[in-house]
Amino acid sequence: MTRYTLLILALLPLPLWAQTQLELKKPSDTMRTCINPDTQTESQAAGADPILSNKAIGTNPQEGQYRQSMENLLRMEIANVRVAVSDIVSKHKELIDLYPSLKEYQEIIIEDVPGAWREGQYVNSKRVLSLGFANNGDIKCVVLDSTTRAVYNPDQWTRKLMRLYYPNVQTMELETLRHNYRMHGTLEKGSPEIQLRALRLIYQNLRTALYSMDMMIAAYYNVRNKKNEWQINM
Fold it and tell me: Where are the domains of the chain?
């Protein structure tokens, strides 16, 4: 192969698969990734008892009944989250046929409020759900990223991140950053009530993300079906 042939090949456009690889979406913020997957507990089998601290056990028989009720509720919410993740994976396989750049990573804006009163302050807020996928299409990590900032005092802000490591949905990593401190921990160390609220929150946001992915698919076909419409409108 001559130098001139190599030069011509170099000037030719990249094949479609190469262009797709170059255009793959990446996290817009390094915080929206699963940064500590090795710190999570071993995989739990479906139907296994939820993780609860021994400190939740009391000597009062009523406390034992309450704990059993909480375990049942947590077991149901864990199953709901796993189903929601499974639905996201299935929808993602449909989505990347239309949007190949989303093969490995996708960010979905759940909430973007320019101004609202919260806890006595006028703030703007944004919530983003980040989805990371492996090469085989399995989900690697889900990150729920929420930020609020005081409109009249921008130096006062709070950012909260919840990182879900599938399939151990109960061992979500929690990170809170504020203008004056930082906290880090995992969900299973929290009280049963906090765990339940967190699981319900991530479930709701996964369902919202699933709806957004459906809308992206619908928008693709809507644009496709309107292509050349003006030319046949005689």
Answer: 54-219
